[in-house]
Structure formats: C-alpha cells, structure tokens
C-alpha cells in the first residue's frame, strides 16, 4: 500500500500511539499561564551545572526521564531515539543519546524538530521498523543567545521583534500498540519544504518562519482534503506575536481562514509575562507546550484533533554574514484522540 | 510484519533500489587513486564563489544534479530529500533544499550522515511513505577547518593524527521500483548508538569513531546472523589510517576478523598522496567514495554485497572546551547487487 498522500503528506495505516510524554520548562516560562501544565519546572537556569550547555543537556534528560516513567518504560525498551536541539552539532541530544544508549538518529530542523522527529518516528513505527520510538528536543535561552546572537553577559538590549528562546524540553514516546489508558495517536503528517522570505535579521525569526508555516498548513489541508474546521487547533511552534500576525494575514489573503483555530506555542507560553511581548521560540517551546498543554488537552477530551506545525528558522551566523537570508521550514503532524 | 530485527537492525521487505548516484571531489582528492571514479572534479576550492561555504553548497548541488541526471529525474520527482553536512545548522543541505524545493528532512550525525540518510530514506521507501528519496551530503576542507579547528589563513601545522576533511559530496536516489538497468539495492540497516572512547583531542577523530564503528559492525553481524565472509567489503566512512588500525586491533580482540574485507574510504581516497598520511574525513569522504567507487563496483559486478558503515565524530568546539569528550556514532547499511 502506498501511504504517500499528495505531494508532501503521508498518512499512517495504523494509529501511532503516544504512550509517554514529558515537558520541562524554566523559571521564566513558569511565570506564564502554562505553569500548571508542565511536568517539571527548572527553577534555576544552571540546574546545578557549571555551564548553560550542560544545563540544557539536563533539561533534555529530565523530559526524557519523565516520558519514560509515564510509559512505564526503561531506555532499553526504546528501539530508536530521534533527537535534536538548537546547539551546534546538536550536543544536548547527542550526549543524551550516549547516556541513554538507545540507537540514535540525530536530526536538525531548528525549532521544527519536535514535528520532524514525530514524523520520522511515526514512519518507523507505522512502517514496521520499530515498536517504540522516543522523540525529544530541548532549547535554553542562555545557550541559544550566546550561539546565535550575543552572550547574556554583554547585556545587549533586545530589538522590538526579538523573541525569547524558551528554556525547556519536550519528549514523546510513540508506540505501535497502545498502553493502558492511551488516548492520543498520530494519524498523518505533512513534510515541509524550505521557504525563504528574504529575512536577514537574526532578531526577526517569526517573519522568517511564517511563510513556511503557511505553506505547510495550506498543503496539509489540500492533501488531506480538510478545512480548518476539521481541527480543534492548528498549532504553530514558535512564530511569536509578530510572526503570528504575519501568518494570519498571509493566510487570509490566500483564502485560508485559520484565525479561529490557530494557536502559537510561542505566544501562549509567555502570554502576559512582562518583558516577553514578542513571545517565545526554540525547539523547547513547541516541545514543552505540545507535551505539556496540547497532549494533555487531547487526553482530557477538551480537543479531538489538532495539527501541530513546528516551525524552524534555519539561522546560521556564518551564512548571514555572507549575505544569505534566513529560510524557514515547518513540519506538521496530525494528533487525534480516540474515545475508550 | 515486523521488520525490526534484533535490537538495532532493520531489514527491508522489498529491495530499495538505487536508481541514481552522484559523486564530486576536490582537486586534492583527485590526486589520489580514486580520481577516475568520481563523476565530477572541482578543480578550484572556491568553485567560482566568494566564500568556501558557498563553494560547499555548490558541491552538494553538483552531486545532486548528477544523481538526478543519472536517474532521469527532476527535483519534482523526489518525494523527500534527506540531507546533511558538517556545517553549523547544516547550511549546505538546507540552502540546497530551498533551491530544490523538495520536502526536506535535515539530519545531523556528523560524518555518519551518508548512512543515516540512506537508512531513513530506505525506511520511507520500504514503509510505503515515498516512491523516491534523495539522500545527499557534503563537506569541504576549508569550511570544516575554520569551524572545528583553525582558519586555513593561520597556517597552523597539523598534528600527527589529524585527518584531512574531504572536499566532496555524494548523492544517492532511492526508489521503490528499479529503473532500467538498476543493479544495486539496499536490503537492511543497523542503527548506531553513541559510543564514547573518552577522546578529547579534536585532531584525533579516527580514535573517537573507531569504537562506534566496531559496535555497529559487531551488532550488525549478530543481528543478521552473518560473518565478515558474507561481505565483499565492510566499508567504514572515514576512520583514516590511525582509526583503521585501532578498529582492526579492537575487532581482533573481540574475535571479529574483518581485516581481509575491511576498507576505509578515508584511507582509500588519499592513498599515496603526499601530506595526507592520516587519510581523509568528513561527510563528503564516505559520500563521494560510496557513490563514486563502491556503487560502481557493485554495478560492474566486481562486488555482490557490502556493508557501508559511515562513521561520525560528534565534535563540538563548545563542549570540548567544557571538558566533555568527543563521542562517535556509526550507522551501517547493506547494499547488494542483483543479477539481471
């Protein structure tokens, strides 16, 4: 059977069950309205480590640990780990892969990773190549600022469009068979192309990603022959307030009215928090809000079907200095609730 | 059917056909014994571009173009692109994904990428999610030295264990159905875990990867219930001369005698070339030698079955400065020849 649907979408023949989930957020993120949704809060940015990079590695480990506990599994029960983070050479994911000793696929799609890993993981499960796959991602405000912009120690002021990289992590365990009480499953995915809006400002990631988000959402609805009404929420990862405005405006011009169902993890996580007007970003943003808020809402029956579109800005400090623009990519996965 | 075999291996139900291949090498690489094997030689390191990063992007594009031509395909015929390179945020792959407009999975496994992308691509094809998948990777001596060690302009002398990052690229097109004259296909894969040998010297990548290579080869033979004699070649990506010595020594101690069938792309590419005693490394090393030499040997009937184990050292300049060691990862794919 060919499960390839349309030009860019796939549907899964069997439900790919979500049997475990973990979400971790930092202190700043816990000041927002989602505090109660996260499994764990890291009250200190260093988490007792000597460097922020080592702290981020711990965030990743905490989310994974929580997901494994929830699924009643040990690392040895996982067939594969699909992991990513924002740091060069994805060190948070790779050092965790070493410690967990799970066969490992490292991926890189910037902040689109939570959806990229779920898409690949679901293909492995539905394709019969794995029984259980662990998908995880993380980001940290201090490590990302240092790598992509300025070290925090410099005290550089933020520009008006700059989002805050979320200190957080998310982990999801996919399985061919449901666990006791499993309600959520993946039913399909739409894989993104790299879309370039010509943005060259490293502090305007929302704009760099909005075009990719729109392309993936539009293609998804077309491939699956659905309308926004078929979803309780169409969730973008981290467009932030400015990127969200852009997305909704462009979508309207294209005749796709998603305003009523659209939610953005980057907007949600810092809603009403002082000094975070533009919202959050980073792999840990979509990762923690998906696992902390949306999967919970599906489990509790508040939602029945969502499209989770994690959005990534492929920012490189080297290529930007060489006059290249910052393209974006967005991957979408359909997550549904099955009644008992 | 569960195609998951053993703890870390998968077998493909149907042959995953290789219908196109492209290999590009630089001037230094063309001084070696494999010159005639490569499809294209880039005589100038800048390839007419203003920066080495832009030149590497061109290498990637050239390999892809050649593979597409060989398969008689256009980019639009590809369902997915699985791409990687060594640069931060995998910019060579990502900018090519933008230009090609193929739905894109970015991955990162350092120099293990050619095998990681083939494994993922073959799962997509055999799982029924794609008809055709393009897998590609690249590296460039000047961009890698600048990013991981010192810019060439400094004229820093090499240490005795330092390998030369290969300027080159490789691309392979996988397909559910054979093209006219197709001979080679993927039949299985073994996914690597991250193995840490405790190496902290950024100029000793071979040692950092040898343990991962051994673990993957050993697991592979166990999972598939085969011996080294079942292969015409067990090929590692880029251990170089020193890493190869280590691998063969460790393998012997473990009772796995691969000496007679073992080949290393990093050793082969610079064999006899002055000043390149430790051999080559980089994604482009395994990528160009697999597509230029080994797939050709299989097509011509000189070999019938190989195990291609691309090896990656997960080197991060940040984590090494923070006292972390450099772990390795290796993924293996089985490529076979079918008689007409």
Question: In words, what does this structure look like?
Answer:
The structure is a homodimer of 340-residue chains. The first copy, chain A, has 9 helices and 14 strands. In chain A, strands 1, 2, 3, 4, 5, 6, 8, 9, 10, 11, 13 and 14 form a 12-stranded mixed sheet that branches. A two-stranded parallel sheet of chain A has the order 7-12. The first copy, chain A, has helices spanning 52-71, 91-100, 113-126, 141-148, 205-223, 240-253, 265-269, 283-299, 317-321, and strands at 4-5, 9-26, 40-42, 80-85, 104-106, 132-139, 164-165, 168-175, 184-190, 233-236, 262-264, 280-281, 305-313, 328-337. Chain A is 33% helix and 25% strand. In chain A, strand 4 (80-85), helix 2 and strand 5 form a beta-alpha-beta unit. The model of chain A has no long low-confidence stretch (mean pLDDT 95). Chain A has 340 residues and is an alpha/beta fold. Chains A and B meet through helix 2, strand 5, helix 3 and helix 9 of A and helix 2, strand 5, helix 3 and helix 9 of B.
Strand-and-helix sequence of chain A, N→C?
A: EEEHEHEHEHEEEHEHEHEHEHE
Q: Most extensive interface, residues per chain?
A: A-B, 62 and 62 residues
Q: Give the class of chain A from helix and strand content and strand pairing.
A: alpha/beta
**N- to C-terminal separation of chain A?**
28 Å
């Amino acid at each position: 059977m060919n499960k390839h649907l349309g030009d860019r979408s796939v549907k899964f023949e069997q439900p790919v069950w979500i049997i475990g989930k973990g979400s971790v957020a930092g202190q700043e993120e816990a000041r927002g309205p989602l505090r109660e949704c996260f499994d764990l809060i890291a009250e200190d940015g260093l988490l007792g480590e000597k460097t922020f990079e080592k702290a981020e590695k711990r965030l990743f480990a905490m989310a994974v640990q929580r997901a494994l506990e929830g699924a009643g599994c040990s690392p040895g029960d996982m067939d594969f780990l699909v992991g990513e983070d924002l740091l060069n050479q994805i060190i948070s994911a790779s050092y965790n892969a070493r410690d967990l000793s799970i066969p490992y696929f490292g991926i890189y799609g910037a902040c689109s990773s939570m959806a990229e890993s779920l898409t690949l993981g679901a293909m492995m499960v539905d394709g019969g190549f794995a029984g259980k796959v662990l998908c995880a991602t993380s980001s940290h405000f201090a490590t990302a600022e240092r790598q992509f912009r300025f070290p925090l120690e410099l005290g550089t002021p933020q520009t008006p469009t700059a989002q805050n990289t979320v200190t957080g992590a998310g982990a999801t365990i996919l399985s061919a068979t449901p666990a006791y009480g499993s309600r959520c499953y993946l039913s399909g995915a739409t894989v993104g192309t790299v879309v370039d809006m010509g943005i060259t400002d490293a502090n305007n990631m929302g704009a760099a990603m909005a075009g990719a988000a729109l392309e993936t959402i539009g293609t998804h609805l077309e491939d699956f022959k659905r309308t926004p009404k078929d979803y309780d929420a169409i969730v973008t990862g981290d467009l932030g307030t400015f990127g969200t405005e852009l997305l909704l405006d462009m979508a309207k011009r294209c005749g796709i009215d998603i305003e009523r169902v659209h939610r953005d993890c980057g907007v949600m996580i810092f809603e009403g928090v002082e000094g975070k007007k533009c919202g959050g970003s980073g792999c840990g943003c979509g990762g923690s809000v998906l696992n902390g808020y949306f999967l919970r809402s599906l489990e509790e029956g508040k939602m029945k079907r969502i499209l989770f579109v994690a959005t990534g800005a492929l920012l490189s400090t080297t290529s930007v200095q060489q006059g290249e623009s910052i393209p974006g990519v967005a991957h979408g996965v359909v997550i549904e609730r099955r009644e008992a």
